[in-house]
Amino acid sequence: MDVYLPIANLSVNGLLIVALGTITGMLSGLFGVGGGFLTTPLLIFYGVPPTVSAASAASQVTGASVSGVFAHHRRGGVDYRMGGIMVVGGAIGTGIGAVLFEWLRALGQIDTIITFLYVVLLGSMGTLMARDGWRAVTAGRGGTKPKAARRRHHPLVASLPWRMRFYKSGLYISPLAPLLLGLVVGIITMLMGVGGGFILVPAMLYLLGMGAGVVVGTSLFQILFVTMVTTFMHAITTQAVDIVLAALLLVGSVSGAQIGASLAQKSKPEVLRLVLAVVVLAIAVRMVLQLFYSPDEVYTVAPL
After folding, report:
1. Among 101, 128, 106, residue whose Cα is nearest residue 117
2. Which long-range contacts (CB under 8 A, 24 or more apart) does 198-203 make?
3. What is the full DSSP assignment across 6-36?
4. Is residue 196 predicted with pLDDT exceeding 60?
5. Does some domain include residue 297?
6. What is the pTM of this model?
7. 196: Cβ contacts below 8 Å, ≥ 6 apart
């Protein structure tokens, strides 16, 4: 079933795009991430321009995060004070990212930069996940449990001024820390079309020292609003949001999120983490090759 994408200016297999949305929705249900860190590179592999992929994937991540936020809200797993500060930082970061996006696009380097950022982030994230997943799997086979890391915020976070209490997270830290974290994620979201959950979750655990019970819900809360702002910024600045592409992805992600939530209750988390790490590293390797491969048809367009 071919569907024409008006902004990307190409026809795609609609069922394949829905299937891609289902996969990213499953990741959202399994791991509490928006799934955009896989959606954008997979769309690029399929032939969708990187600018359109990044802009459209952000809107898909918004839809995939809604049900997750409601689910975590019902069980009290969202720190709205912490999340609200990160949303403010994310909105500021989105504005900065929009300026960077336009500047890089004017230089003709935006596609290369997006691909390079994905190589760095996916490579580092996949390596860390593979290491932790392998340790957990081998420890489980040996009949021992891996030692849980002490939950405490980073010394740099402790040195920031103007502390306030975040009761849900059990923290007494400066609001500047979540503000700056949200700002960085906002810039990355604007440039790469990701929700930022794969950065937020470990940063909230190991930098801010938040309790594990509120990390995923608070991350999805921040992702929800920052990707909304990102989609709006792309719509008015880059005009790269393809609503047809986003709609196809959303159709799949809604059902995929439910499947992922069901699988999460039946599967071992360390095995899931190891499988995801392998997938992420495979995509990172594929993007490295894409940076160095020459296209089949090399051409230039000279001004008249």
Report:
1. 101
2. 198/33, 198/37, 198/121, 198/125, 199/121, 199/125, 200/86, 201/32, 201/33, 202/128
3. TTTTEEEEHHHHHHHHHHHHHHHHHHSS-SH
4. yes
5. no
6. 0.69
7. 34, 90, 185, 186, 188, 189, 222, 223, 226
C-alpha distance from residue 239 to each of 195, 205, 235, 274 (Å): 19, 36, 5, 37
The count of structural domains within the chain is: 1
**φ/ψ (deg, to 5) at 85:** -65, -40
Angle between helices 197-206 and 110-141 (to 10 degrees): 50
Paired strand residues for 11:
4
Render pLDDT for 8-50 as a digit per residue (tens, 0 to 9). 778 888 888 888 888 777 776 666 555 666 777 778 778 888 7
- Residue 63 pLDDT: 67
Structure tokens at 202: 């470990």
CB 75 within 8 A of CB 213: no
**What one-character DSSP code corresponds to residue 253?**
H
Amino acid in position 245: L
CA 18 to chain centre: 18
Q: Are strands 2-5 and 10-13 parallel, antiparallel or unpaired?
A: antiparallel
When pLDDT is averaged across residues 277-293 and rounded to a whole number, the result is 73
Question: Do the beta carbons of residue 79 and residue 214 sit within 8 Å?
Answer: yes
The pLDDT tens digits for 215-244 are 778 888 888 888 788 778 777 877 777 888
Alpha-carbon span 3 to 13, nearest angstrom: 6
DSSP 172: E
301 part of a folded domain: no
Give a yes or no: residue 299 inside a domain.
no
Residues forming a β-bridge with 12:
3
Q: Are strands 164-166 and 171-173 parallel, antiparallel or unpaired?
A: antiparallel
Q: Which two tokens stand for residue 111?
A: 């596609």
Residue the block writes with tokens 């399994």: 30
Q: Which residues pair with 5 in a beta bridge?
A: 10
Task: Quote the domain boundaries for residue 271.
Answer: 2-291
- pLDDT tens for 237-254 read 777 778 888 888 888 777
- How many CA within 13 A on the CB side of residue 123? 11
